[in-house]
Amino acid sequence: MEIRTFESADVVATEAALYIADRIRENIAKKGIFTMAISGGRTPWAMIKELAKADLPWEKVFLFQVDERIAPDAHPDRNLTQLFKAIEGSKLVLRLNLFPMRVNAEDLNEACAEYESHINRMTGNGKLDLIHLGIGTDGHTASLVPDDPILEVMDKGVDITGNTYQGRLRMSLTYPLINQAEKILWVITGEEKAEMLDRLLHRDHAIPAGKIDQQHALVFTEELAAAKIK
The whole model's pTM is what? Predict the structure, then answer.
């Protein structure tokens, strides 16, 4: 898996935004649209803020969520809330085709199936052009967290976690859907992520992130996080 290391988290955010912008232009030139799913996090929100400044045909970009907490609308725990903060004041607000996860639906299983159907409809085959992922200090990615039943889900592309994590149940893309993406972009910053980044690169299946396919993946990271790579 390719790894690109930069001097700071701020530079990672900027370079990742430039990389995504290039993929958007490339895919739209080839097939007319671009489909992407994003995760949350401090550096990713900075990345999205930078990306929102780019002059791109946003009406042809279709944005999905990798995961979302089961929490009320506009709650600060929600990734959607933080996404809107990141793009606030940009032209992107009016032009973006956004598919939020319906985590307040009465029937969450139905909402998961509906979300997967949206992805299938927009992509035609379930393969998103790009999925952005991060990693936690426990090795989780998306809301695929250690010891959760969702790790064993192979017949659904979107599902609900079986256990609460940091006080919330979550809706998340699952391994089958993530692993068929055309590109997977890992954005990993912070010295506290160094051990898990090394384990990710060595495909350690003892952590959830280690089971993500690496064939079409690359990592954008900073020097502090890359310090323990062997």
Answer: 0.96
Query: What is the layout of strands, in order, in the sheet containing 97-99?
Result: 2-6, 217-222, 184-188, 130-133, 34-38, 61-65, 97-99
Residue with more model confidence, 12 or 95: 12
Do 40 and 130 form a contact (C-beta atoms < 8 A)? no
Counting every residue, how long is the chain?
A: 230
Separation CA 228–CA 23 (nearest Å)? 30
- Rounded to 5°, angle at Cα 180 from 217 and 65: 85
% residues pLDDT > 70 (the chain): 99
User: Class of 2-222 per CATH?
Assistant: alpha beta
Helix extents (H) in 32-162: 42-51, 79-87, 92-95, 108-123
Residue 159 tokens read as: 């599902």
Distance CA 201, CA 206 (A): 13
pLDDT value at position 89? Answer: 81
What confidence category does residue 149 fall into, taking pLDDT thresholds of 50, 70 and 90?
very high
Residues 6+ apart with CB under 8 A from 198: 228, 229, 230
